[in-house]
């Protein structure tokens, strides 16, 4: 064998090895892509085709009042079977307005009551997928009765799980809420606790449909791996995108048990973990979860030096989380100052009642109910708009801006207090 023949054999062997390496790499990439498509479908998250994406400028404006939607899919989302997704299509088949990822839908439910008949209940649930032209999705966790308590299970969540089926019709108000991801290219850190994952799923799916190069961190806290929602879908996204950093934090799992995924770890989401994980960058932080989680993390982020403008959060239920800067200005639990006096007069025009509101009397919804005035209410957190009431005279103030934007000349009683003597149409 001549030197030329030997050289050709060596070159051929190298080219063959390179071809095999490229073929293996392509095959692994295809397997990951195929797994992503499969987990998206199995997780109840429709595969996004280019023609299906919503262009903000091409969609209709939000509707007013209530619109009828039909349930097209109902999907159990986790091993404990206490999270269920509901895919909703408008009965009129008209195109839907886009929404900001992180916003919610408001539902008016006619829930059966003991003895016959129904009671109208208004509740808000976060959208859990990115915007689409023809459907919305919400994911709802069944709320059991609190342990060692006489309180009943969550009425609306159990109604959804037990009574809402395929083709059920629901009354829905247009997407709303001020908690949503910004549309810049700034890196983001999403911190979710329990069912607080739902708006984060909307943010993640929107980011990788519209901004696939954006740096995204998602830390998702749950007690056990069996409680996690969309685990396979999120892991497939993390496998596909090097700029998507995913971590499941399991707080009550057996510390000696073997974790089933490289994305899992024992423990809670806390500031020490964030300090260890995050590079020094101007992140925007988005938090959603139970109040104790937010009450711990929000001030910790502030102490770490994160500016208020980069901390965005949404707490469950009517409980609120106060920023440290606000707490320094106003003692926790104290109402905002009311002009130059310590008391004002609140008049209810329809009932003919007139009472003195003083610091410590609480918000106007609690104040009205304490004096025997029935008020239609729902979330009691400034989200659903059920307690919107006309102001006949005077002014009110809000400790924090409500998610629901009240109409001019009205207020949301559940999150407002009187600024001056005020007359309400109740």
From TrEMBL:
User: What InterPro entries does the entry give?
Assistant: 2Fe-2S_ferredoxin-like_sf, 2Fe-2S_ferredoxin-type, 2Fe2S_fd_BS, Beta-grasp_dom_sf, Cbr1-like_FAD-bd_dom, FAD-bd_FR_type, Flavoprot_Pyr_Nucl_cyt_Rdtase, FNR_nucleotide-bd
Query: Superkingdom of the source?
Result: Bacteria
| Transmembrane segments annotated in the record for this chain | 6-27
- Which N-terminal stretch is annotated as signal sequence? none
Cite the GO molecular-function annotations of the record.
2 iron, 2 sulfur cluster binding; flavin adenine dinucleotide binding; metal ion binding; oxidoreductase activity
In terms of Gene3D superfamilies, this protein maps to: 3.10.20.30, Nucleotide-binding domain of ferredoxin-NADP reductase (FNR) module, Translation factors
Identify the residues that the record assigns to the FAD-binding FR-type domain, covering every copy. Answer: 64-182
Q: Per the record's keyword annotation, is Membrane included, yes or no?
A: yes
**Residue span(s) of domain 2Fe-2S ferredoxin-type:** 342-426
Q: Which cofactor does it need?
A: FAD; [2Fe-2S] cluster
Alphabetic keyword roster: 2Fe-2S, FAD, Flavoprotein, Iron, Iron-sulfur, Membrane, Metal-binding, Oxidoreductase, Transmembrane, Transmembrane helix
Q: What name is this protein filed under?
A: FAD/NAD(P)-binding oxidoreductase
User: Organism, per UniProt?
Assistant: Rhodoferax ferrireducens
